[in-house]
Amino acid sequence: MKLEFQMVKEFGDFLADGHLGNQFRSLRVESVWDRAESVTFDFAGVTNINDFFVHACFGNMAEEHGEEFLAKVRFKGCSRLVRSFLSIAVSEGLRKHRELHAGG
């Protein structure tokens, strides 16, 4: 199964609420993660995003799944601002994943 989420339809043009980001991750993405061969997040139309949302949704997802996150998740339609926030959150999540799973 291939999933694609249109983020502007899910949240509007400003993704700011960390609670909603975490809820979306848990209920809409994690609930079907094992059955999905790929997950695409389309940010076309999203004009702004903040740390709370991006870390709650994507940073936590990267921390949970590590390298599988990189293999399965795609981002498209990102402005420079959105891509910058995503890059920071995903890098931080992957770093935490590596630390948690180092040596064992």
Describe the structure in your own words.
It is a single chain. The protein has 104 residues and is an alpha/beta fold. It has one domain. It is built from 5 helices and 5 strands, in the order E-H-E-H-E-E-H-H-E-H. The chain has helices at 7-11, 18-29, 51-65, 67-72, 80-101, and strands at 2-6, 14-15, 38-42, 48-49, 73-76. The strands form 2 sheets. A 3-stranded parallel β-sheet has the order 1-3-5. The longest helix is centred in the C-terminal third of the chain and has 22 residues, at 80-101.
Describe the SSE topology:
Blueprint lengths: L1 E5 H5 L2 E2 L2 H12 L8 E5 L5 E2 L1 H15 L1 H6 E4 L3 H22 L3
Parallel strand pairs: 1-3, 2-4, 3-5
Helix pairs in contact: 2-3, 3-5
- Approximately what portion of the residues adopt beta-strand conformation? 15-25%
Unreliable sequence segments: none
Main sheet characteristics? 3 strands, parallel
Instruction: State the end-to-end distance.
Output: 31 Å
State the helical fraction.
55-70%
Tally of discrete structural domains: 1
Helix/strand order: EHEHEEHHEH
Shape: globular
Number of helices: 5
Rg from alpha-carbon coordinates: 13 Å
Specify the structural class.
alpha/beta
Chain-averaged pLDDT: 97
Q: What is the tally of beta strands?
A: 5
- What's the arrangement of strands in the largest beta sheet? 1-3-5
